[in-house]
Amino acid sequence: MNKLNPRIKYRLGMSKLFHALVIVFAFMIAIPLIAILFFVIKEGITKINWNFLTNIPKPVGEVGGGIANALLGSLIIVLVAAIIAIPIGIFAGIYLSENKNSRLSYWSRLAVDILQGVPSIVIGIVIYFWIVKPSGTFSAISGSMALAVMMLPIIIRSTEETLKLIPFTIKEAGFALGLPYHKVILKVIVPCGFSGILSGAILSVARIAGETAPLLFTAFGNPYLNANVAKPMQSLPLLIFNYATSPYEEWHNLAWGASMILLIWILLLNIITKLITQKWKVQL
Amino acid sequence: MQELTSQLVQKPSRVIVQDRKTKYTGRNIRWEGVFKRSLVITALSVLVLVVGIFITLVVQSIPSIKALGIGYLTGKTWDPVSDIYGAWPFLLGTLLTSFLALIISIPFSFAIAVYLGEYRPTGWLSGFLKNVVELIAAVPSVIYGFWALVTLVPLVRKLESAIGVAPYGVGIFSASIVLAIMIIPYAASLGRELIQMVPSSLKEGAYSLGGTQYEVIRDVVMPYTKSGMFAGVLLSLGRALGETMAVTMVIGNTSLIPDSIFSPGNTMASVIANEFTEADRAVYLSALIELGLVLFLVTVVINMIGKSIIKRFTHE
């Protein structure tokens, strides 16, 4: 090595230096993740107990209180959003994969692309004018609608991409047996791509479960337990936002506990998606 | 792929057996028409949804466009109490935070892309890194905001008093750091895919001429992926512009024009989040919606440009 001329030595040195820099910068991304996990778990774990999960928040100054209203609210809002978005998303995805070159699919695809990039707060504003203002009250259902709009592009894209991969011969076989078109699609093609569609749906839930911005002007939040979707409803992200920015220590504690539950929920959804995609070798 | 195909072939046979009794009756034909029509309707509804979003934003911002005109975007004061609306502080705040976040994030996302795409595409260490990047993308914005409020803001405050500026803690600089962390995954995963698309014949050619790994990356991989990388940066800019919650929590929320990157401010998204439900006059509300319209148009244009560049790149 000592006999190498200095020019080559310099070039090899540069290459090594660059490699080292790349490694250092690349793995620095782990620092914020570890810091966030560490803080949320450290602060959150001591706050979570049975009362925390079953009580509603108490007024400032009283000890205790929980986040039952937000847990229930989050569950309802996300569930309703999924019920709205998943059928529409799958149908639109089927249309796009079945009609690859029609004029409508060109424009729909463009619309999906646009929808994917729309800032979540803008969707909140629009749903406010579509549902909240005409009905005169903030409501959980409007929050679900806002989240459903955000889920659509993810479900449509994953359905379309999955169904595109299914060989045409399978569809032909279905037709050859005399099945009508809708049965070929719903009983042959969709079951074939089921794993891909399922993981797309779960991924879309994981993406919107932590969304706050579209709920600010729709679900709005509610300090009491409520299961009526036509009324304002609390949700975990809203509770975290409101209580984290408040000056009270008790509310901060509630927010930490809620953060930990939300984080675990979302990480679980992501892991499930990952397991599904690995098991069935789906490409999203 | 073969495994996938074999699975695909197996599944439907089971399903079709159940349908052996199906006859091509009039009912089936009717259902076929209903089914086809409902497919068209859902595809159409997505289109209607996007057009509807745009029209709603335009219609609702008409009062503000009429009352304030084009001067709205360059007006330097935002004072709803005295009915003065100028969006310049928020435009500036948005641009400052987004570009600062972009500059901070680029070295990191570039390093991740190069590491995963070129140095070590497989192996447990890169598997670990991939998972970290995915989790960074999965953490909800509001949790970033809360975390930043509790840990990052005090650190920034210390830094600010060390370099002798007013130690607010919250402000454009803190918001940019949080934003940077949040947008790294987008550029990084796109960059990795682009780098893996570089033909190995090109790289092998450069190696056989005696190039070092660094030189191959600099002189072959980078020029080849240049346009795609630019698109990746654009797409993460689109993300940064629209990000609301984390920014709202740490930017300080004042409507004054920021005079340095350390001063508190507001972005378009954060001012909407803070003031929308308080807006009690028609013009006030409409002015906020016009901000939403601007945000919508800017992010749509940026996303379209970014995606068309990527499409052109992947088809080449």
TrEMBL record, chain A:
MF terms (GO), sorted A to Z: phosphate transmembrane transporter activity
Its membrane topology: Multi-pass membrane protein
Gene3D superfamilies reported for this sequence: MetI-like (1.10.3720.10)
GO terms, biological process: phosphate ion transmembrane transport
Transmembrane segments: 20-41, 71-98, 110-131, 137-156, 184-206, 254-272
Primary localisation category: membrane
Domain ABC transmembrane type-1: residue ranges: 71-273
Matching NCBIfam families: 3a0107s02c
PANTHER family: PHOSPHATE TRANSPORT SYSTEM PERMEASE PROTEIN PSTA
Name under which the protein is recorded: Phosphate transport system permease protein PstA
Annotated source species: Paraflavisolibacter caeni
Gene name per UniProt: pstA
From TrEMBL, chain B:
Domain ABC transmembrane type-1: 91-306
Transmembrane segments: 39-59, 90-115, 135-156, 168-188, 283-305
Subcellular location: Cell membrane
Highest taxon above the source species: Bacteria
Keyword Transferase (UniProt): no
Keywords linked to the UniProt accession: Cell membrane, Membrane, Phosphate transport, Transmembrane, Transmembrane helix, Transport
GO terms (BP aspect): phosphate ion transport
Protein name: Phosphate transport system permease protein
Organism (species): Paraflavisolibacter caeni
Taxonomic lineage: Bacteria, Pseudomonadati, Bacteroidota, Chitinophagia, Chitinophagales
Gene name per UniProt: pstC
